[in-house]
Design goal:
The protein is mostly helical and 209 residues long.
């Protein structure tokens, strides 16, 4: 069982070279964007919290809400589990997101065990949690666990970047993105980083935190 991960800039460079070879338009992207960011973060509850906060809001709004939560200590599962809903709402969380985060904190998944599981099993474990869908599970695999062949096909910024790069008539939905990204295995997570960087280049703003 291979659990290839992206840990260093050398890993990114290897993946980027592969992508430029199989899809020349990635060479153009990499010339425009320069060195790709690692986009790694520690795994665990705080990573899931950040991803839940980021659902369906701008990156600026997500950063502001996350900052208020962290200032109150609500980036720790035990604090969220004990918090009153009004305390979390005061930080800017919606009612559904409060319910999701309290459920995840109470479920207390074994984050350490996820590190040794194949991608599909991590996805199954995470999506069993309230409020965690494929997009959140994919982001966790990509940024918290560093898996090299994960591609968040439902991410709107990736879809818009792909539409622009491949001159598509409309933004591709998740199933089409799955098909588009298939030739980029086993480095689809590097492709995601490249497309996020390209999105920033063409739009002048971040597509994801």
């Amino acid at each position: 069982m291979s659990l290839r991960t992206i840990e260093t800039e050398a890993d990114l460079a290897e993946g980027a070279a592969f992508l430029a070879d199989v899809e020349p338009r990635f060479a153009v992207v990499l010339d425009l964007t320069g060195t790709l960011p690692l986009r790694r973060r520690p795994d665990g509850f705080a990573a899931l919290l950040d991803m839940i906060v980021s659902q369906q809001v701008s990156t600026a709004s997500a950063a502001a809400i996350h900052g208020r939560l962290a200032a109150e200590g609500f980036d720790r599962a035990e604090r969220v589990a004990r918090a009153a809903p009004e305390e979390l709402a005061a930080c800017g969380l919606s009612r559904p997101k409060i319910a999701y985060l309290r459920a995840i904190a109470s479920a207390a998944p074994d984050y350490g065990a996820l590190r040794a599981l194949p991608d599909k099993d991590v996805t199954a474990a995470l999506t069993a949690l309230k409020g965690v869908g494929r997009w959140t599970a994919d982001l966790y695999l990509l940024s918290a666990l560093g898996r090299a062949d994960v591609f968040p096909s439902g991410d709107l910024a990736l879809q818009e970047a792909a539409r622009h790069l491949f001159d598509l008539p409309q933004r591709p939905a998740a199933p089409e993105m799955d098909a588009i990204s298939a030739p980029w295995r086993p480095w689809r997570a590097v492709a995601a980083r490249a497309l996020w960087a390209y999105y920033r280049h063409i739009k002048g703003r971040e597509g994801t935190r």
